[in-house]
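Hey, quick one: can you model this chain's 3D structure?
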Amino acid sequence: MCYFRSRTILERFPVKNTELLKPASREEAELLEKLDPKRLPNHLAVIMDGNGRWAEKRHLPRVAGHRAGVKAARVVIETCARLNLPCLTLYAFSLENWRRPQAEVDFLMRLVREYLKRELPAIHRNNIRLLVIGRSAQLPEAVGKDIADAMRQTAKNTGMKLVVALNYGGRAELADAFNAMLDHVRTNGLFAFRADEQTISDHLYTAGLPDPDLLIRTSGEMRVSNFLLWQIAYAEIYVTEALWPDFSRVRLLEALVDFQKRERRYGGLGALRPEHDAHSRRG
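Sure thing. Here's the predicted structure for all 283 residues.
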């Protein structure tokens, strides 16, 4: 699949971000009209939930829901790239997901490899940089190799950063960060070492990326499911009843329009905390 079929034409003429999207319906056109391309999030994070329930509602096997979820992810990636969002993070597989039936876990691992084989050429061609966060060393060897190859191929791309959280847990990320800091202290004999917020951020899997401005959760569940616990401290949260395979471009645009209506105070009275704004744009 090519995310930008008319890319050659688009590169010849300066256009607004939203003009990179050709609306497929009146609803999409109306939402795009409301969207301010200058006030889009720097980092959108998404908890993709509801694949299994989507399949069960249709009397299909759960794996059918996961395949449908890949299609929804493709739409979201394409839309965010066309809007020139700097960073998109998708929660694909948690540390807790290993508790699922072995057949389902094996299918999900095969689906990761299948996705990379099919979609990586288009991702690379459209200047998207792929990053994978989580405990990759614990993944099956073949999956880990494919991930490493994909990240190496796209490492020099300068467009949107597509971050896939795979074998990821927010508490595990913090534990890994703290242990990395302890190793550094012990190795270098830094007995007077004191950690601050920036030091901790620099040791997270997401070091160098802006913190999410917007967290979207599908399927109506009102929880963050151990996802980016440190990074979403000031994120706006948007929950939709739509199950992930039903999360269309319209649903995404609705979330972005809703985000732009909110006044972000960061605990104060102003619309933006200057030091947080600077931190959110680093990297």
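One thing worth noting: The first strand starts at residue 43 and ends at 47.
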